[in-house]
Amino acid sequence: MFTGRKSQQAILSKLGIEKLSPMQIEAKEAIESMDNVILLSPTGTGKTLAFLLPLLKELDSNCFEIQNVIIVPSRELAIQIEQVFREMGTGFKVNAVYGGRSGSKDRLDIKHRPAVLIGTPGRVADHLRREAFKTTDIKTLVLDEFDKSLEVGFENEMREILELLPRVNKKILTSATQGVSIPGFVELTNPVTVDYLDEEISQLAVKLVIAPSKDKLDKLLELIAHLENQNGIIFCNFKDSIQRVSEYLLEHNVSHGTFYGGMEQGERERALIKFRNGTHQILLATDLAARGIDVPEINFIIHYHLPNRSEEFTHRNGRTARMNSHGSAYVLHCAEETLPDFVGNLPVEQLTKKPLQERADWSTLFISGGRKDKISKGDIAGLFFKQGNLSKGELGVIELKNDCAFVSVKSNAVDDLLPKVNNTRLKKKKVRITIA
Hints:
The chain is of the alpha/beta class.
């Protein structure tokens, strides 16, 4: 139910943001005043909030149909934007639809129309073909990371979506890539470009680590030890490589998560949750994680394999040193191999011999109730503190989903905690609490 429009300052306060960045201010002003806007800004600089804030002002609380459609190239980005919108506490309904999720669940969600629908091209096009909802009130279309959608083969679906949304009069395109051609079927008329791609983060240090042979696993382990207790992403080009590196790290008791296209959607979501809440400080990933995922401040990036193109090298590096923070990217390179030109001349990092440190002292718990059960983060914290006898320092990040929740807890407290809180009531629901 809509209870009144919040001020921008109230929304920022709820998100824990003190003020908008110059990019966000300029993008917001452009979107509010112009019909066609192209927003170019590096990964991790807050593009989502930059377009959500002005679009929120256009939503009509008396309209009970979908008013705004946001197209994204990946499930993770759809979920991330949905989460940001919910956390803004706008009072407007939002839903995300994407492949890998049952169509019946989509239909149930959008039976009570959201004001904002977020989705991947294939799934949104499918709903439009089926005439699952009216399109007469959809006046605004956002193509977030639009170049990625075209790159992963959704051009036909994107073209179809544009054709099936005839009442759209405002289009916003975002990207973290320079010089991408925009297909004619998007029909952008006199677009205004807000370009912050030249505002590169100078705090990023890119370094070369030389491995003695093509099998770089030993050197990777040495680099992880050198970086001590920091969090970061190790990029590989193939699923098989991730599995091989993962097995090697497990043999050496290095806790980590994995993230790649062949995983089930639920597994991918849980990998990101555990990375965000500190259960895993290292994520092994393909370029699927190079942009459009919600992860915390990352101290380092390791290119176990270099990507084939300079754009992906830039996007990978953009996961660290975000929003003016510091970070390092390491190219793990065999001396016998030739580096591609886009890497440039890099200083060689001399590794300090250090023992591997124990990393993860957090575990993730799953709770079988969520937002739809009227459960709040405060309810969960109260249960864990009062009934579970946790101290404040033993409770970590709480992530609340629509039908479940995930909570990080100090690993040494889990065995004592679970018998006290499992199969108890949160609000009116009896919940199961287990190790995720």
